[in-house]
Fold these 2 entries.
Entry 1:
Amino acid sequence: ETGVTQTPRHLVMGMTNKKSLKCEQHLGHNAMYWYKQSAKKPLELMFVYSLEERVENNSVPSRFSPECPNSSHLFLHLHTLQPEDSALYLCASSQEPLGNTEAFFGQGTRLTVV
Amino acid sequence: AQSVSQHNHHVILSEAASLELGCNYSYGGTVNLFWYVQYPGQHLQLLLKYFSGDPLVKGIKGFEAEFIKSKFSFNLRKPSVQWSDTAEYFCAVVGGSQGNLIFGKGTKLSVKP
């Protein structure tokens, strides 16, 4: 247990579906992140939230929509995804600034788009 | 932009062999460096980190890494691997105090019993 919990663990969705991934942290951290982990590629940073404000969006397609209602919760809303979006989506949290501490990761949501 | 290169995609060793996994980064300023490990079916967890001070860093489970600033490298080592070290290892870097955590592609380590 890392203190970062992601649900669901596995998700299969069609290209026309709308679904959401949830992340929750109980570590008192003030920053949260979404990463995408695909085979044979580096973990890709998708979104960064600091103090519930989005501070980074690394050119992620609009079919991915993050939401951070408070410092403990982070969502990733998904709609009209493509098969190439199938991957492991990881949530992480840290205490800002990240340069002085470490990030803690959840176990991820394995997403399959059919 | 920051980037991290891990030289080996898949390393296969026998138990008791020595391990060295390469990691190079590109960033001209102050960096903080990390090695994370992901055991099969488990979450990413921190193995060790370097922020400042002694460039030889000791981590959990007998792992260590050496920061060589002139080579922009942070290689991971272990003198004698065990079957339980089978996992994927990720090098990561944060450039400056306000940077983001950027990962390499990872190196899969398979240890044969």
Entry 2:
Amino acid sequence: DQQVKQNSPSLSVQEGRISILNCDYTNSMFDYFLWYKKYPAEGPTFLISISSIKDKNEDGRFTVFLNKSAKHLSLHIVPSQPGDSAVYFCAASAGAQKLVFGQGTRLTINP
Amino acid sequence: DAGITQSPRHKVTETGTPVTLRCHQTENHRYMYWYRQDPGHGLRLIHYSYGVKDTDKGEVSDGYSVSRSKTEDFLLTLESATSSQTSVYFCAISDRDSWDTQYFGPGTRLTVL
């Protein structure tokens, strides 16, 4: 049973526009959420995180929004750049030193 | 970047053979993890360690064992490899004070024929 879901396998966005990646979860015990970025043949790299006590966290061009009532989080990238082309994973934790990952969304930024 | 290396980076083996993957860290982090990445499944936790000789199972632990005899090394063993274990394996580490934020190694691509 997939507790963290990224329903869009891929997303294509024009350079300079906003990229919005979505993630849904089912476990109401999740209290910390993260986004990772992965380039081919490399390990995932941590991008940004948010605690369940917040509804927004910003870091430069990246903003994560959390809607607890809808069990939904999203990652906004503004403006999108060619180097943002990668696979993005959302992840969630409920303590116990474990992360649960979504399936990933492949983002392509077109010039 | 966190100091994490994985060896080997690529391996091809035959069904039924034992395989050991190594993860080495230079960050002195307490927690270490093994994941596998497969299309349509994202990253799934195999086993993790919260200290030397302290390990626990993850979501997909069947067919895998682990050992951690030193803080810096975490070994993943496939006792008898099967084709279903063909995957990309990632090691990750995290610190006690911020264990949620995990840092990943470069991965090992394993093919079981």
